[in-house]
Amino acid sequence: MEEARLILGAATSGFEVLLSWQVFxxxxxxxxxxxxVGLVPGLGGLIGLALLVPFAVTMEPISGLxxxxxxxxxxxxxxxxxxILLGVPGTSAAMATTLDGYPMAKxxxxxxxxxxxxxxxxxxxxxxxxxxxxxxxxxxQIVFAFGxxxxxxxxxxxxxxxxxxxxxxxxxxxxxxGAGILLAMVTIETSTGLPRMxxxxxxxxxGIPLIPVVLGLYAIPExxxxxxxxxxxxxxxxxxxxxxxxxxxxxxxxNAWLVVKASTLGAIAGFIPGxxxxxxxWMAYGAAVNSDPDPQSFGKGNVRGVIAPEAGTxxxxxxxxxxxxxxxxxxxAAMAILLSVLIVYGLVPGPEMIGEKLDVTFGMIWVMLAxxxxxxxxxxxxxxxxxxxxxxxxxxMVPVILGTMLVGATMEHQSFGDVLVFLVMGLFGYLxxxxxxxxxxxxxxxxxxxxxxxxxxxxVNLHGWGALTDRPLVWVIGxxxxxxxxxxxxxxxxxxxxxxxxxxxxxxxxxxxxxGEDA
Length: 519
Prior knowledge:
Blueprint: H1 2-19, H2 21-39, H3 45-56, H4 61-78, H5 80-85, H6 95-106, H7 110-144, H8 148-165, H9 170-184, E1 187-188, E2 195-196, H10 202-205, H11 210-229, H12 245-254, H13 256-271, H14 277-291, H15 304-327, H16 333-344, H17 358-386, H18 394-411, H19 416-434, H20 440-463, H21 466-469, H22 472-494
Antiparallel strand pairs: 1-2
Helix pairs in contact: 1-17, 2-4, 2-17, 3-4, 3-11, 3-16, 3-18, 4-15, 4-16, 4-17, 6-7, 6-15, 7-12, 7-13, 7-15, 7-17, 8-9, 8-20, 8-22, 9-20, 11-18, 11-19, 13-14, 13-15, 14-15, 15-16, 15-17, 16-20
């Protein structure tokens, strides 16, 4: 009873914080930016988040978090507009939506498909928030039972999962995570106070800054590819007439159980580090195909093929927040950047965030829920004009974005070294992207490498070898790590049957590949 009263009080306090004009105002600004970022193919939540972090760290913690979460929450809402109307997914998280949304638009049901996608996104976020409320009492007991050794093992698990789940090659993913850890080692060594792998370069004594690395790895390659395309961002003519609002709502409500199932799968995909929106959408889409009496209708304009992936990707965002604040393990690359912001604000993930700072955690959940609802309402009102942004010429878009990125990369330290890191990482990012080397593990290795070193240092100093022999949870997490990393190839080898992967549409048009990556 006391536990329930504490959780309810924290939820109420978090909601009151959301209603303050500073927090609500910054959430609205972030929401509008996120709608633009999601709408324009070539950007995406990760790039938008990296661009806004330098501005957010100068704000009050809760206002800055509302600003960032408002942005990242709605990117997978407006990316359904070009996916449905033009067949061009704005991010990888809208690829499944394209399969049935675009055929619906071609037969004059664009408004219905768009409305269904918005309402599915709203309900998916609500379901994920409800799951968080239900899981919180158990989550608190688990986290409070953890010490430094357990958190070190969890970070190791997160790094290994990231390496094996990001990209098609586990070896490449592991190598990129290792490269990120090596970059995290370039700093002043905490136990001795001496430079480590930094030599006499004073710029490196504070460590390699995150923002120029993220911007270089992700934003520069996307802008290069966008510039190479030339002409406008999207091809074809925009579809006019956005009726079907009531029908889209009726479709979503009529498939309530599918929304719950898809949202639960999306929240699970968000909770597991290294997955993300693309995995969540295909899990949800596969669930819709398997549970439909007419699976052959998918890819031809079945509205359930729009509802399921949109609910799944929406639920993935709150789901990925849970391991980030509870265990300090980012659920995806966007949460990895958010984790660094939490640390800058002095908010330490773990027992503090679900204990004395539980109201802040609930405030973040409320912000994501409110931003999703408000973003959907704005998109419904303005989608006729929003879609025209897809027709801005790349020659106009690229210089503006590159200039903004350069300012963002140097804002924190105001050093020429940031420019060099930005450019060097941009070169490597372009090579990694086109050589099919995953970049997410490198980002997570850079952020989590410092956390792993800190927890390892504390574990050895406080517990010695007893961290291994006297703590059963360390062995449990170690067994989970072993099973996750080494049993997965065996499982794939033993698995039989066709893979659930929708095909092309009946007219032979393959859905366009997104330019950007999901957050």
